[in-house]
Amino acid sequence: MSFGFTHFVREESWEVEPHNMAVGPSLLGTEQIVATLADKWSARIKVRINRDTVSAFRAWKTQRRGRLIFDQIGPVRELAGSADGTALGITVLHSDGTAHDDATGYGQGFTIAAPVAQRATTLTVEDPGATGNFDAGRFFGVAGRLYQITSLNAPVGTDVNFNFWPPMRTATAQDDGFDFPPQTNMRLAADDSASVTDDTTGTIDVTIDLVEVP
């Protein structure tokens, strides 16, 4: 079930929770920290609801049964697409270079240029038009999971290559596409998260803490 209150979101924060391990002090007494691949997303979403929607929100929370049920949720700011308000893709014109009468073209999403192994952290996008659409810090989705670009690498020919985190959850094939909007499986961080307090002024601010389902 998708999260049905995205249009009420006022603030949001999406972070990858590191799951490092301490392996004890070294011979010099310094603590050794070892990174793991178990990092997962956490999110804090603040929504503002009113008396007309509070019942629906309470019903949504009750349906979650605490931490039992998860939703497909992603950063709301990515719903608008790229920085210029378009979807994560490029516009393709007719073969003679002209657009439709309304100045639009054909929508074409980006695809993955080469297979990406499970736990990999580098990806190549097969399309020269991807330049400028994939920037450091941007979120993207593949196979129902959420990732974030951490840095751009040198282009591979005309293709865009970048590093991302967390590591790829499942192996991805060449020519696979990207999810739009990017989302992943999230559940309440605690059974009492998203508690609603009645407010007679007409608006209610609710904080929803979420964690990713591995």
Helix-strand blueprint:
Blueprint: E1 9-17, E2 21-25, E3 31-34, E4 40-50, H1 54-64, E5 71-73, E6 89-92, E7 106-109, E8 122-125, E9 139-142, E10 145-152, E11 160-165, E12 184-188, E13 203-212
Antiparallel strand pairs: 1-4, 2-3, 4-13, 5-12, 6-7, 8-11, 9-10, 10-11, 12-13
Could you please describe the fold and organization of this structure?
The protein has 214 residues and is mainly β. The protein has two domains: 1-23 and 33-81 and 185-214; 108-180, Elongation Factor Tu (Ef-tu), domain 3. Helix content is 5%, strand content 36%. It is built from one helix and 13 strands; from the N terminus they run ββββαβββββββββ. Strand 10 (145-152) and strand 11 form a beta hairpin.
How many structural domains in the coordinates? 2
Round the Cα radius of gyration to an integer and report it.
21 Å
Number of helices: 1
**Beta-sheet strand percentage?**
35-45%
Order of helices and strands: EEEEHEEEEEEEEE
Largest sheet: 5 strands, antiparallel
How would you classify the helix and strand content by structural class? mainly beta
- Overall body shape: globular
Distance between the amino and carboxyl termini: 17 Å
Q: Major sheet: order of its strands?
A: 1-4-13-12-5
| Number of DSSP-assigned strands | 13
Name the poorly predicted regions: 80-94, 99-107
Tell me, rounded to a whole number, the average pLDDT.
Answer: 78
- The portion of residues assigned to helices is under 10%
